[in-house]
Amino acid sequence: MPARAAQARHITARRAHAQAHPHSYSDSLPNSNSNSWAEAIATIDLDGPHVRTLKHDGPAHNPALVLTTVLLNQRVVLKREPLTSALARLRARLGLSRADRHWRAAAALAPANIPTAQCLALLIEHAPATKSGAATWLVMAHVEGPTLLELIARTHSHAHAHAHAPTMPPRAQHQLAADIGHTLARLTACGIANRDAKPSNWIISPTRGPTIIDPVGLRRATNKRTVHMLASLIIEPHGVGTPIRRTLLARALHAYLAAIDTTHPTPRHRFKRLWHRVAAHVAAHLARTGGTPRVSPLPPTQPSTTSP
Description:
By secondary structure, the chain is an alpha+beta fold. 37% of the residues lie in helices and 20% in strands. The chain contains eight helices and eleven strands. The chain has helices at 32-43, 86-93, 98-109, 148-155, 170-189, 223-239, 246-260, 268-289; strands spanning 10-17, 25-26, 52-57, 64-71, 74-82, 119-126, 135-141, 192-194, 202-205, 209-212, 218-220. The strands form three sheets. The chain has a seven-stranded antiparallel β-sheet with strand order 2-1-6-7-5-4-3, sandwiched between helices. The chain has a two-stranded antiparallel sheet with strand order 8-11. It has a two-stranded antiparallel ribbon with strand order 9-10. The longest helix is centred in the C-terminal third of the chain and has 22 residues, at 268-289. The two termini are 15 Å apart.
C-alpha cells in the first residue's frame, strides 16, 4: 500500500458511542468524543509500524480496509468503506451506508445479550477535489482472539504441521460447535437471522465466547433466511479448502435446535429436514459460484486455496 500523507484526509464525525451509558448508542450530532476520533483518524499514519492491516481490497487510491491499531489509548479496529458513487455518498449523508447499518445492527444485539464488537465512532472521509477518495470509517473496540475460520483451518489436516497454530482438542471443538449453535439460537429467538454468519465474521474470544464482529447482515428471521444463515457457516470454509467435519456440523445443528425449544428433545425428523435444507442450499451455492472468496479471509500463515 503506498504511503499516504495523514494531513490530506479530511474527516468529520457522524456518531459516537455514548460513554455515559455503556449500553446505549447515540445518533445525535457529533460531540467532543466523536470529534476526538475524527482528529485521531485524520492524523493516523496508515503505513506506520503500529498499524496492522487485516484486510485490503480495491484500488490503492481508495481501498476498503480493515486495520487494527491503538487510538485514544485503546486498541481498536478500523473499517474503511469507500464511497465510490454519488449515490453511495448520498446514502452516507442520510445514514444509510454499510457502516450505519453495522452500527444499528450492533445496537440491536446488545439487549439480546449477544456478544459483538462495540462500535465507538462513525466518521466520513471527504475528498472534495476528486470525490473518488470519499469513505466511511467505523471505529470498533478490538476483540481479542482468532476468527472462527482460523480455528476451523487449524483443525484441518493441512494445518497440522503449523506449530504456531495448534489444533483444538476434539472435546473443545464440539463445545465450540455447540456454543455457535446456541448463539445462533439466541438470534432466532429474537426474530433475527444473520445472512452473513460466515466464520470469518466471528471472533472466538477467550472471555466472551463467540462474538459477532460484522452484524450488517442482520434481517428479520424467516425460514428461508434461517437456512441461509446456517449455510453461510459452511460455505466459506469450503471455499478456502478447509471444510468442517460433518460431526461438528451435526453438533452445532443439534445445539441450535435444542436451544430453540428447551422443553422437548429435538425430533429426529426435524433435525433431518433442516439438515437437508441447509445441505441443499450449500450445494446450490457452491455449484453456482464455486465458493472461493475473491479476497482470502485467512491470514497468510493459514492454509488457503484462494488466490491472493
